[in-house]
Amino acid sequence: SLHGRFVLTSGLGGMGGAQPLAAYFAGAAILCVEIDESRIDLRIRDGYCQHKTTSLDDALSIINENVANKTAVSVGLVGNAAEILPELLRRGIIPDVVTDQTSAHDPLNGYYPAGYTKQEADALRGNAPDTYLQETYKSIATHVQAMLEFQKKGAKVFDYGNNIRGIAKDSGG
């Protein structure tokens, strides 16, 4: 059962947009990392997600309170998974479940590299797509390495078949 569990995921576009609602229905406290704030806004507007924040500390406060009370909640965190997941590890925070529904299968148009705002990355993609891809491949490797580290520390980890693991492996991750 996911009742009272902490679920961490990334990606609220397309198919990933249903994750917060599904986890809520299952009784979980889910933190959804998404770099595109408009995707979080859409999920909130449609009733799929309850909260939005740009602060990891605020997101964790909501998650921790609801896990302690064993109440369901969904939180959209504006951020980059390749930055947020390693930060959670650095802080020693291990979710019960970690998954991913970013559009990693399309590294040029569906995944954002770490170290850039969405606007900066969009500009880089248009001006220097080869550099964008290099940065994206490094970020995907970092993202997957963090997922594997969560697994080593006891989290249940999986993805939905978006080829994130294959890209990470090919990128040296």
> Which residue ranges are poorly predicted, with pLDDT under 50 across at least 5 consecutive positions?
none
- What is the SS-derived class? alpha/beta
Radius of gyration: 15 Å
Mean pLDDT across all amino acids: 92
Sequence of secondary-structure elements: EHEHEHEHEHHEH
Strand content: 5-15%
Largest sheet data:
6 strands, parallel
3D shape: globular
Largest sheet, order of strands side by side? Answer: 3-4-2-1-5-6
The number of helical segments is 7
Number of strands: 6
Distance between the termini: 31 Å
Helix content: 40-55%
How would you characterize this protein structure?
With 173 residues, this protein is of the alpha/beta class. It has helices at residues 19-25, 37-45, 56-69, 81-90, 118-127, 129-152, 164-170; strands spanning 6-10, 29-34, 51-53, 73-78, 97-98, 156-157. It has a 6-stranded parallel β-sheet, sandwiched between helices. Helix 4 (81-90) runs parallel beside helix 6 and helix 6 crosses helix 7 (164-170). The termini are far apart.
In short:
The chain is an alpha/beta fold.
SSE layout and pairing:
Layout: E1 6-10, H1 19-25, E2 29-34, H2 37-45, E3 51-53, H3 56-69, E4 73-78, H4 81-90, E5 97-98, H5 118-127, H6 129-152, E6 156-157, H7 164-170
Parallel strand pairs: 1-2, 1-5, 2-4, 3-4, 5-6
Helix pairs in contact: 4-6, 5-6, 6-7
Based on the model shown, name its key terms.
173 residues; six-stranded parallel β-sheet; globular
